[in-house]
Amino acid sequence: MTRIVAGAWGGRVLQVPRSGTRPTSERVREAIFSRLDSQGVIAGARVLDIFAGSGALGLEALSRGATGAILVDSARGAVQVLRANVAALGAGERVQVVGADAVRFAASLGANERFDLVFIDPPYALDSGVLGQVLSSVATHLAPAGIIILESSSRAVLPDLPPQLMNRTTKTYGDTQVSFLEVAPKN
């Protein structure tokens, strides 16, 4: 069972796709959002959740004060679950659900599109080259003080980051590794 941890929808249960997804555990989500809360970056944030699955990360951000989110997944079952979760929370005006390939979607973002928080939680078996393409595309759409939260297997080697990003910190929670990426300072 996956629940929203805190905020306006705290305790609400989310549907989870039947197969093909690995929902972020409540423990890991709480750790991610405790860090983001302490930085004061959630309230008013514009959120992009790629490989959204149930939408738990993007919807948690909305529950805690983000103003809008785009939830992206390519699996038909996941998109149906995303729409059901958004409807159950009454969040339709603040959320856009997109059924699309992550690489193509990230590459198709408008030139002026900016996000404050980007959650990237791909399947652990995803090729690092594909993940690198997603990171490169999304990096150009990160707001100046924005953060990319990248979830991966603790055994995974992270892809090389595009030059405009830097890894602020990486934390490990059991078999899950969470990296907080930010815009790299210009020399």
Automatic annotation (TrEMBL):
Protein's name according to its UniProt entry: 16S rRNA (Guanine(966)-N(2))-methyltransferase RsmD
Gene3D superfamilies to which the protein is assigned, alphabetical: Vaccinia Virus protein VP39 (3.40.50.150)
GO molecular function: 16S rRNA (guanine(966)-N(2))-methyltransferase activity; nucleic acid binding
EC code: 2.1.1.171
Pfam families (UniProt xref): Cons_hypoth95 (PF03602)
Gene: rsmD
PANTHER family for this protein: METHYLTRANSFERASE
InterPro entries: DNA_methylase_N6_adenine_CS, RNA_MeTrfase_RsmD, SAM-dependent_MTases_sf
Keyword rRNA processing carried by entry: no
SUPFAM superfamilies: S-adenosyl-L-methionine-dependent methyltransferases
The organism's place on the tree of life at top rank: Bacteria
UniProt keyword terms in alphabetical order: Methyltransferase, Transferase
Gene source species: Mobiluncus mulieris
